[in-house]
Amino acid sequence: MMARVTLRNLAAHKIRLLLTGVSVLLGVAFVAGTLIFTDSMNKQFDDLFGGISEDIAVDVRAKKVVGGDSDGMGSQPVPASVLETLKGVEGVKDPIGNVTGYAAVVGKDGEIVGTPQNGPPQLGVNLTGSGFYDLTSGRAPRGPAEVVIDEATAENGGLAIGDTTQVVTAGPPQRMRIVGLVDTGNMMGATVTAFDTPTAQRLLLRPGYFSDIEMQSSGPSEEELRDRVAQVLPANLEAITGTEMSEEAQSDIAEMMGFFRTFLLAFALISIFVGAFIIFNTFSMLVAQRTRELALLRAVGAARGQVTRAVIGEAVAVGVVGSTLGLVAGAGLASLLQSQMGDAGQGGLTFTATPVIWSYVVGIVVTVVSAYFPARRAAKIPPVAAMRDDVALPQRSMRIRIALGSLLTAAGAGLIAVGLAGGGGNPAAPVGAGAFGVFVGVAMLAPVISVPVLRVLGAPAARLMGSPGRLARQNALRNPRRTAATAAALMIGLALITTVNVLGSTMRASVDEQIGAQFGADYLVQSQGPGGVNAEAQRRIEGTAGVVSVSPTYDGQVKIDGKDVFYVAGDAQALAEAVRLDVVSGSLAAGASAFMVDEDTAEDRGWQAGEVVPVQFPDGKTERLTLSGVYAKSDLIGPRLLPAQAHLRHTLKPAISIMVVDTAATDAATRTGLEAALKAYPNLEVADQASLKEDARAQVDGFVTFLTILLIMSVIIAAVGVVNTLALSVIERTREIGLLRAIGISRRQLRRMIRLESIMIAVFGAVLGMGIGVAFGAALQNALADQGLGVLSIPFGTLGVYLVVAAVIGVLAALWPAWRAGRMDVLKAISTE
Predict the structure, then answer these.
(1) ∠579-421-791 over CA atoms, to 5°?
(2) Do residues 783 and 499 make contact, with C-beta atoms less than 8 angstroms apart?
(3) Helices 467-478 and 747-783, axial angle in degrees (round to 10)
(4) What are the E-state strand segments in 65-141?
(5) How do 622-631 and 594-598 pair as beta strands?
(6) Cα 9 to chain center, whole Å?
(7) Residue 161 predicted with pLDDT over 90
(8) Diameter over CA atoms, the chain
């Protein structure tokens, strides 16, 4: 019988439950989309690396001494003589020497094809004919003036066979003729520029050397052939099987995609958390409106458990429908994410059981848990209540709510403080748990907070809008619990968006201050990609009118005390002026074996000026460098400054990372002269203090925009919640609305009243959320002040815009409920029980 009751109730409340299902749908869509997208990208990477190593039995390469050497330029290359030695090893078949490095092609528009910054790699290789890069048209390159490029690069750059184009490498740009095109398959958006082997060695590596040597097997297993090869290799080289090579690459990608999945799922959980408030609110109102009906069920013999299961059954149905639609929407979201990946997202979607299982688990569990407490309250209705006209659900005392809400808020704030204070471990766990506690705590306290706040927010409407304004304020204040639950959903989304914007504004202000305080050079010349600034470009800069001095800087990684650490290398005297270095002890490094560190590093290591430190470089060699001095923290230099000579001694093909330029004048003519000198180098840009600040702001703005877009999903769910609450509220107040119409209120005034009520609820949620967001942002800034966020900046203009957006959300959310209220028949509304 109760199953039929559940089905009847679902049919009777289709629109109300549909809006609840939308909340489930949006939250589940985020989860499903994230899982489908990352599964699809993992499959593409697995296919890619599986294809690369498919015909490789053993690969010979330099031993990696220092981690993070992704471009291979710091490692020892493999001498060509090793290739001849391998040909004599029993079981080795068709050994091939590979050359790999950075190379990019300039398109017809004069711009580099591809995305050199933070995008897919731009590969330069030697065309070996091994079969991985299939020549689809034209012929292989022959000689130093010919090149082959991939088909996608040719299309994107407007290039064709026979065209002459500029090729950018770590050395001087080359004018080369395109003689062929290759099909690279799905290389995830990477560009490929292929030369003959001698040209590739000269431009990308060093004549007579290879990046690695691959080979097939004429019979032995991979492991057996690897062991045979290893016996004839020098100590600085190693042999790995093709399977190991593929597993290494897949492991690195899996780690990267795992982080990306966790990152997106965090935002999905936020959306689900917001949706839980909406579901709870909806079922609470549905139960309240059906109090007499449920009491009648109890009177005719239904047990408490049956009534509870009936309401839970409705929640399960909503969860199943919402999860199913959310899974479909998630596939669409995953497809949209793939489309934003450009060439890297052309492999199609991969469907596994994981997204399906988690979509239904998340959707149904969240819906059932959110509906459980309203269901329990429904079961407690006494049967005798069916005989009364004024039956209503009992309301618990606010004392327990206030005490528990205060405790959760305080505990959450404490966890956030512990996480931000550091002390080892992963700070994300305590900060995330603390934020969750604060949100739940404030949501519990919101009914108490809402009364004085809504009185203030509703005062202008009550004064300026007459009766509709006063009635709207009274309606918002009538049920503080419901108003608070509705506003809490919007509060969470806007709290997180505000936190992100406060953090972004703080980052912009802090970077501006750092550049203003530390940047003492006139200009910087830097590369837009990994190619760096080459020696010829340096000579052109030095020959530009008005240039007083040019100082190159390099960067890399070394191993100190067994740990991989980053460093900047250059002339200490020149850099001290360029970045206004403050030496606190010792003196500026002088000589080829003297280096410097900042105060934090010196304190952490227990070093003092004069200390001799063994430093191991990527080529495997170790030097003993003398600490000449300690400087105050510099965000532009970083924690370690090594001499340029040490970097050059251990780097195969050094590329200048940044060129520091001082000039006689910083006028437009000087900058124009520098840009004219570098016209042949489309990968290089000239920057002064203002443009550095502008670039930094652009990066921060992009980051803030990306996070805000991800958080907008929670705001959309919150807006659905406002619609749901108002629609149910209109149904609940049907008789009251009829009486208002009967005593003379017009349809326009009625609609205005509902719109104003919606605006008050939305603005209350926004004010609460922005207040929490500002507090979170200030806490983050205070905790990260020593890591470059020294200036707290609150974007009041942006917050004002968000307040207006919240009001607009209130207006939009009220459109349908207000329209429905205005169309009610007065006599029928009055006669409604």
Answers:
(1) 40
(2) no
(3) 50
(4) 78-79, 92-98, 100-102, 104-105, 122-126, 134-138
(5) parallel
(6) 42
(7) yes
(8) 104
Quickly count helices (H) and strands (E) in the chain: 25, 24
Contact 251, 271 (CB under 8 A): no
In tens, the pLDDT along 544-562 reads: 998 888 889 999 899 998 8
How many Å apart are CA 478 and CA 590, to the nearest integer?
76
Residue 1 gets which letter from DSSP?
A: -
Q: Strand 640-643 to strand 583-586: parallel, antiparallel, or no bridges (unpaired)? A: unpaired
What does pLDDT average to over the chain? Answer: 82
Max mean pLDDT among 399-413, 476-490, 761-775 falls in 761-775
d(CA 297, CA 541): 88
* Per-residue model confidence (pLDDT) at position 110: 84
* Beta strand pairing call for 58-62 and 212-217: antiparallel
Which residue in 643, 637, 673, 695 sits closest to 520, CA to CA? 637
d(CA 435, CA 416): 7
For residues 213 and 203, what is the distance between their CA atoms, to the nearest angstrom? 18
DSSP code for 681 = -
Q: Is the pLDDT of residue 245 over 90?
A: no
φ, ψ for residue 552 (rounded to 5)? Answer: -80, 145
CA nearest neighbour of 128 among 89, 167, 87, 99:
99
**Distances in Å between the alpha carbon of 300 and those of 4, 71, 294, 297, 304?**
15, 77, 10, 5, 12
CA dist 88 → 197, 401, 507, 734, 822 (Å): 22, 81, 59, 93, 92
Arithmetic mean of pLDDT, 205-209: 90
Domain 523-687 class in CATH: mainly beta
Q: Would you state the pLDDT for residue 34? A: 80
Q: Is the pLDDT of residue 395 over 70?
A: no
The conformational region for residue 788 under phi > 0 = left, psi -120 to 50 = alpha, else beta, is left
pLDDT of 818 > 60? The answer is yes
Token reading at 311: 């309401």
CB 337 within 8 A of CB 366: no
Q: Which residue has the tokens 């790999």?
A: 100
The pair of three-digit structure tokens given for residue 543, joined into one six-digit string: 């020959």
pLDDT of res. 70: 40
Tokens of 331: 């596939």
Residue 243, phi then psi, degrees to nearest 5: -65, -45
Residue 74 pLDDT greater than 50, yes or no: no
CA-to-CA distance for 794 and 772, rounded, in angstroms? 13
Structural contact between residues 205 and 61, judged by C-beta atoms closer than 8 angstroms: no
Beta strand 212-217 with 640-643 is unpaired
Among 240-254, 288-302, 745-759, the minimum mean pLDDT is found in 288-302
* DSSP H or E run through 518: helix 480-518
Contact 754, 821 (CB under 8 A): yes
Dihedral (Cα; 652, 657, 662, 668), 10-degree rounding: 130
> What is the residue whose two structure tokens read 């060093």?
206
Min mean pLDDT across 102-106, 337-341, 721-725 is at 337-341
Task: Give dist(CA 414, CA 420) in Å, integer.
Answer: 10
Contacts of 791 (CB under 8 A, 6+ apart): 506, 509, 510, 513, 781
What's the length of the chain? 833
Residue 466 belongs to what H/E stretch?
Answer: none
For residue 81, the one-letter residue type is: S
Tokens 């003092």 belong to which residue? Answer: 608
Domain ranges of the chain: 58-250, 446-518+690-833, 523-687
| Res 72: pLDDT | 40
Amino acid symbol at 452: P
The pLDDT tens digits for 642-697 are 999 999 998 877 888 888 898 988 888 889 999 898 888 888 889 888 888 888 88
| Most confident of the ranges 47-56, 232-241, 467-476 | 232-241
Assigned token pair, 249: 């690459």
